[in-house]
Hints:
Chain A is α+β, with helices and mostly antiparallel strands and 138 residues long. Chain A contains three helices and seven strands. A five-stranded antiparallel sheet of chain A has the order 1-3-4-5-2. A two-stranded antiparallel sheet of chain A has the order 6-7.
Amino acid sequence: xxxxxxxxxxxxxxxxxxxxxxxxxxxxxxxxxxxxxxxxxxxxxxxxxxxxxxxxxxxxxxxxxxxxxxxxxxxxxxxxxxxxxxxxxxxxxxxxxxxxxxxxxxxxxxxxxxxxxxxxxxxxxxxxxxxxxxxxxx
Amino acid sequence: xxxxxxxxxxxxxxxxxxxxxxxxxxxxxxxxxxxxxxxxxxxxxxxxxxxxxxxxxxxxxxxxxxxxxxxxxxxxxxxxxxxxxxxxxxxxxxxxxxxxxxxxxxxxxxxxxxxxxxxxxxxxxxxxxxxxxxxxxx
Amino acid sequence: xxxxxxxxxxxxxxxxxxxxxxxxxxxxxxxxxxxxxxxxxxxxxxxxxxxxxxxxxxxxxxxxxxxxxxxxxxxxxxxxxxxxxxxxxxxxxxxxxxxxxxxxxxxxxxxxxxxxxxxxxxxxxxxxxxxxxxxxxx
Amino acid sequence: xxxxxxxxxxxxxxxxxxxxxxxxxxxxxxxxxxxxxxxxxxxxxxxxxxxxxxxxxxxxxxxxxxxxxxxxxxxxxxxxxxxxxxxxxxxxxxxxxxxxxxxxxxxxxxxxxxxxxxxxxxxxxxxxxxxxxxxxxx
Lengths: 138, 138, 138, 138
């Protein structure tokens, strides 16, 4: 299934007083990585939202392990892969490597949501076929 | 004119590897301070946007001086005051005090904007009268 | 065991273009909540680090479920409780309530770390007794 | 004098509920741009700090004008140039272009600081010669 790899350099302002990455930054990187993954599959999320009238594909679950710290100036490789595609949701795996060593791993689930006019609230919506096709690409 | 004072504690994650506040955080605090200032004048920005069909009141200018650093655990007082009210814009002054010492000062200008359907773009819009009344309150 | 409750208001700048909280902000709130929890138990983390020569108590694991979105202006209650205390680590549970509804839940594990001069690297370190006492307080 | 140009793509999470870049992000980009500028001149700030025993080169002043908004997916070019070099400080100009249009401009001053053991506090310190050489490079 779809996979993408990108590199980020740890910036000064992403580190905390103990000199390591302040961990909420990993979740910002994971979000950018999902957008990059979809783009690699040919899907620009902003365009998908307009085309299919969905609200978006928010995260519903993260399971994250921080195995080793990263410091100002480190170059991190973030590998992001689709693990499973469901009717309204899909599962992703992120692996952050720092100098070849696994530093962080994260299992993420996103669900497609849309406004339900009858019920007057947001609810799960089947993944657009175009998105399923992108996620399933080798 | 309208003035407000609030206190923030410098959190661990708002500091950088040199142990002082990473400066973009001041601009987040200033934004929250403007919302708090308006609320003190009786105006909730979210409601104002809906009621008057404006886009918002984005910042168009900041002039900021950083005079003294602040560190993890410091308690900062942020004083925010309206300095001038114009037709489509208003000027604000922020003063950040750390233990009674002036640490940061910032002059900010915000302009009211709305979508111009004829020109198909965002442009300046006269301040809603309700907003002018709030800003002018002693 | 030790528990704490605090309230945060969702600010404009913490929301994304879909109008809901951008999820990395929850991890910032969880970090602040842990500091507040420890303070409630009488432990200021900054002072603990100096006193015991430890590096800190970084997060090693998060398991997070996002059950309902939160929007600009929502008032969130964050309940944070110690769940288990181990030799070098402890487990925490965060529950974020939005208008009485459970919006986010997160199981967090933190480990005490210190620099090991012999091995020249950071490693797990027994929790200082003062920290154990604080975490175990009712 | 030294100049650098880099490109950033506006990410989803850098935009606010009005769909435009939340302005504190510009100051994060400016900070990264200064590090990139120095690196282009052959100076890695982290190494400079170790080598010369300085605390850093914090920002003491920003004068910023926001001329046009930027949106999710926009590609921004950030041009950063040294404008003047003083004994303990230097001046920088940032220009953010969005589709060829000037969107933000910012005049920034940074000062070199070091711990003064006699006075027991941080104070201005002459710029290391290596830094002056880098800043003055064409």
